[in-house]
Structures are given as C-alpha cells and as structure tokens.
Write a structure and sequence with these properties.
By secondary structure, this protein is α+β, with helices and mostly antiparallel strands. Helix content is 28%, strand content 30%. Strand 1 and strand 2 form a beta hairpin. The mean pLDDT is 94.
Length: 100
Amino acid sequence: MFDIDNPHQAFQVNDDNNRLICRWSMDKINRQTGPVWVMNHLFINPDVNSKQILHDQMKVVMEIAQKSQIPVWPLDPQVIAYFSQHSEFDKIWYHKPYSK
C-alpha cells in the first residue's frame, strides 16, 4: 500500500501480463500554511477503462490525505476535474481554483 511517513509516494498498477495500467506520484512539500501533498501527473493507459481506474486511484489519494491529515494539491487536469466533480474532495483540496 503506502508508508504515510514517506514524503514521496509512488504508485503503479500493472495487469497480469505486466502491462502498465496506471502510474502516479505525490510529494510532500512544506508551504507557509503547512505541509501539502503535491499530486503529479496521473498516467492511465488509454486501452483500459480510464474512468474506473481514476475512481480507484482517487480512493487512495483520499485515504492518504485523511490518514496524514494533509491536503492534496492536484496538478493533473484529469485529477482536478475529478476533484471538481466530487464534492467529498473539497475538504482535502489545497489551492482549489476560484469558482463563482
């Protein structure tokens, strides 16, 4: 799974044939407001069900944020879109874009 004390979290999912399904990482940084997880690019193999993979990986992001009590700053457009569409992520979203 993951080591909450490790400031670099890296995840990769392969299928039974060792084909890459997805890969992403998060790094814990210190900001003036406190520590933040910066979620880098999320690669999802275009040959798989990307919506399901994204949903499954976002569960891991939520678990890390809740266990560490550190917000997440997503940089990937598809992750930002997912956060925007799922209000439960509002409480862990650092640097949320302004919306009217």
